[in-house]
Design a protein that fits this description.
It contains 14 helices and 11 strands. It is an alpha/beta fold. It has 2 domains: 232 residues, Vaccinia Virus protein VP39 (Rossmann fold); 122 residues, no CATH class. The structure holds S-adenosylmethionine (SAM).
Length: 404
Amino acid sequence: MISATQKAHIRPVHPFPARMAPSIVWDALPKQGDSLTVLDPMSGSGTTLVCARMRGHRAFGCDTDPLALLIARAWCADVDPEGVKSRAELVLEWAMKLGNRLTREKSYPTKADDETRQFIDFWFDSENRRDLTALATCISRVRSESERIFLWCAFSRMVITKTAGVSLAMDVSHSRPHRTYTVAPVKPFNAFLKAVTTVVNNCPFKMNSSVASSASIQYGDARSLPIEAASVDMIVTSPPYLNAIDYLRGHKFSLVWMGHRISEIRALRSDNIGSEVSKKSFLNSAIQKTMEAMADLDTLDNQHLGMIRRYVWDMNKVMKECARVLKRSGRAIFVVGDSAIRGVFVKNSEALIHLAKIYDLSLASRSTRTIETRRRYLPPPESDNSGQKMNGRMKEEVILEFHY
Ligand SMILES: C[S@@+](CC[C@H](N)C(=O)[O-])C[C@H]1O[C@@H](n2cnc3c(N)ncnc32)[C@H](O)[C@@H]1O
């Protein structure tokens, strides 16, 4: 098990918007005793899973975003740093040779359709497009899946950056990409080995170390979890906020190189919890009451009411699933921020409290903490009359603990 002093050294392998503060998980997990089964049903970059492993527990994570799954798998895996670095050197050598032979027409990921090619043309200059095609091709040919995960994670680190990366955009890591450059400031062949070194150095679990815990991360929808009933001791999760972050807007910059088409990513995005796109949802009395607890509904138009209804509809399913997989006597911790829609304060946390009650999860504690500036991704309240008080509350996150 890893000691408390080491928690300060939890370093991410890849940027991720609205990552959970590791100290929340760390402090919530039992310090000693039997190893527990800990689940994060919307695991994102894997903060819960890494902390649970570090504390000697069995960690399970699910997410629907392929890039989140990749990052969490890399972060939680047992790494052989020297082995991965030597593989990366070979991959770079092959990619440089392949890059010399690639024509402009062939400089796209193999499965890219017209729409995906247009996206790539807009956001990547032609030289980087060729070199990224060569690198992506060579990474996908690496036989060892575990090595491939680290190499893709390093590849993606060069793409998803705040200021200077291999694309023409800035702020990709904040999911707010805007085209800034005419030539990308970073060349993939120059940056790849450094990115690999950062990834493997930041992985806390080294191959052949004495850490006995495990982590299993799989594609899974939190509204219908691929997990047995009554099998989990503890859930620690931070669900998406209503309308706050479009994770895939930034993530698609990497995902297109890994063989995903823009149309697939769009479909995934529209089905994600908290997305702005309004899909069908239904109103029943539980949903209506939950919505009333969240905001002054009279001040919102039909489009925004539809968004809130869909969020509650989805989170109701998530809560039902959490209650199903949790053992009797289990604990569930939800970390969530509140939102603002057109200057109306929307209490996502109240929604969770209401929904938990339906499934016999009783609220054991509610606390708030200030979100550190660098972890803050929420859009500011839009209206002039939203006021100081609301601004303050938008900078907080709410930690809810439920007991069965
Ligand atoms: C706030 S982030 C989680 C961040 C995570 N705690 C971390 O520290 O990196 C919310 C996550 O929920 C995921 N998500 C959205 N809809 C989902 C669904 N239906 N099932 C599972 N995960 C989903 C998103 O892809 C995103 O990774």
